[in-house]
Write a structure and sequence with these properties.
413 residues, alpha/beta, four-stranded antiparallel β-sheet, 13 helices
Amino acid sequence: MHKGAASTGCRCAVPAARDAFHLWPIESSMPNVEKQVQALTNYLWSRRLPVEPQELQRRAVHLEKKFLENPDLGQVEEKLREAVLRALRKTTYHWQELSYNESLSLVYMAARLDGGFAAVSRAFHEIQARVPEFQPQTLMDFGSGTGSVTWAAHSAWGQSLREYLCVDSSAAMLVLAEKLLKGGSESGEPYVPGVFFRQFLPVSPKVQFDVVVSAFSLSELPSKADRTELVQTLWRKTSHFLVLVENGTKAGHSLLMDARDLVLKGKEKSPLDPRPGFVFAPCPHELPCPQLTASKPLACSFSQAYHCIPFSWNKKKQKEEKFSMVILARGSPEEANRWPRITQPVLKRPRHVHCHLCCPDGHMQHAVITARQYGRDLYRCARVSSWGDLLPVITPSESELPLSPADDKDFLT
């Protein structure tokens, strides 16, 4: 595989799909659509994981023991049960499954098509930049929604892709995605050929796809058991790359790290493909994530600029999509790129550059790069690098990349 740094400096825009919105009277046909879009955006971003039944049981037992110390409640079982349930309702996050009917699908399209396209395009760009010879022929998108993955994949590999399988449990979403491909009409030729829509995953375990994608879908599942089963199924159907994308929050990042560990450490059910998996991106290692194991855990996230769909409420022409991703590949781990990954915005100062790096040894480092210490080539490379890029330091170690003073107030945190 070609080991080159991946640049994040592009500005993504949904091609052709943007034109469909000009034909779609969404703003006139849906009252208060702007408020609905904002409410859904806020809800999806702030969404946390559902509480597992075992954790709920543990909390209930803890509260019951606490309330038993109260002699008034301890004498009446009914009062005790009511007190426990009341306390659980107040302290437990109430996760709800979203049912995407026709109206909510339209709101989701207006809220998330362009940002989702930007995030997935950034993930595909990682593969393109490092493996330019990779020309996939088949792609499966689980939780395909309004089709942002199809648009992004067509932009990346439209010359080679001949089959796109879009899987979504919502029939309304599938109808909307197909309509978008046809420029907003019910009939006509789709802009992207070879797209098929299904409500269920292919049953045959022998069917594999060159690229398998799940973008913002793991967070839609109600339990860890459901997520585990899905990740195992998606990995079995992967012949080259499995691309997982979620919100750039601690909850989203945690989901991806669980999925990563499941593929790397778990045993496949009925393994038809004996090739092992390894982390292609963004991690330069397969060790525990140093962002999550830090004293103050942080999400490992990235930012991608994109051109907004021109709705009246999009006052800015450009926005930033903050997301987390993990790309898993089949093959030998020796094929993986082991350069450090820049995990925060690069801070440029006169004659030196600050970089936060996730290194192959599984540790985070705050490196100060100067031309005098590291040479002009690396210094210039660091100076033009962006958040999310690989920095071509061959053997990074604590001795080679000195930590800057902890009280450096100029560094962005």
